[in-house]
Amino acid sequence: MSIWRVERVLVTGGAGYIGSHCCKVLTQSGRLPIAYDNLSRGHADAVRWGPLITGDIRDPDRLAQALRDERIDAVIHFAALAYVGESVRDPLEYYDVNVNGMRTLLDAMLEGGCKRIVFSSSCATYGTPAHLPITEDSAQNPINPYGRTKLIGEWMLRDAAKAHGLRYAALRYFNAAGADPEGDLGERHAPETHLIPLALMAAAGLGPPLQVFGTDYATPDGTCIRDYIHVSDLARAHLCALDHLEGGGENVALNLGTGRGASIFDVVAAVERVTGRGVPLRFGPRREGDPPELTADPTRAAELIGFAPAYRELDDMIAHAAPWFGLSAQNQRGVASC
């Protein structure tokens, strides 16, 4: 007689924005998420769907103990530093946490016999694209240390797969946005650098006017265009990737986006439309290294792991995020599955 056992997934960075949302969807799928986080930027109160192990991703003994004691079957790896500007100012810290941390994690996994991992990569690995939309075959030429550390992480996975039989999915996010539609989790960064929270904070009077960096780009309204994807969709994509690997699927590197671009002024208009509040603006010059437009071709994720976003509309993302900044908004649509 076979004995069914709940799959146990180590979620590094599980107290963070995307990691905590991922823990929730893992629980909904019947798995047990074990969050592993040093809480330097995450929040212990966001770990609500399984245990929290406090530890650093660069600590080999702590990682080995977690993998062994918790009998981990697979890993979802979010733990990283993720501010582009900070990576330019302090690149060695980014290489230490993001690259050395990946090395330490992979060593611990292989020593412990755990060979399935879903990796939080980034569209920052592409740099400034020559063509749009960006496909997985587009050249990866990162233009900042953060993007380079994520690309190195992908290289490490590919080489470890060849040498040691590691099974992996590398998910290249575009711009994460929104909050849990059921209101359990939101976005809390210190400092906050994401456009939608900053626009909501400006509308709510919780922060300064929204800074717009450049209005002279070669885009329809002169501001940068980005591909925003709902954080709950991102979380669900990790579940789809895990299912893919567990079903014997090939190692993959995939874009996660909606394929739709929204400019800064589009986001401002959506915030004003959803909340009924004006967004005060302040204008400044372009920031060095900001590409005019980044939009994903999400076709391959749909084909290979069966993932499609449930929340494609910017208004939905803003409606779900707004209550976290004291603003009223009406939630919109339901959720999807893989």
From TrEMBL:
Gene3D superfamilies: NAD(P)-binding Rossmann-like Domain, UDP-galactose 4-epimerase, domain 1
Domain NAD-dependent epimerase/dehydratase: 9-257
UniProt pathway annotation: Carbohydrate metabolism; galactose metabolism
Biological-process GO terms, alphabetical: galactose catabolic process via UDP-galactose, Leloir pathway
Keywords: Carbohydrate metabolism, Isomerase, NAD
Taxonomy, superkingdom: Bacteria
A Pfam family the protein falls into: Epimerase
Major enzyme class: isomerase
CDD domains per the UniProt record, alphabetical: UDP_G4E_1_SDR_e
InterPro entries the record matches: Epimerase_deHydtase, NAD(P)-bd_dom_sf, UDP_G4E
Catalytic activity: UDP-alpha-D-glucose = UDP-alpha-D-galactose
Gene Ontology molecular function, alphabetical: UDP-glucose 4-epimerase activity
EC annotation from Swiss-Prot or TrEMBL: 5.1.3.2
Description of how the protein assembles with itself and partners: Homodimer.
Family statement: Belongs to the NAD(P)-dependent epimerase/dehydratase family.
Stated name of the protein: UDP-glucose 4-epimerase
Lineage, uppermost ranks: Bacteria, Pseudomonadati, Pseudomonadota, Alphaproteobacteria, Rhodobacterales
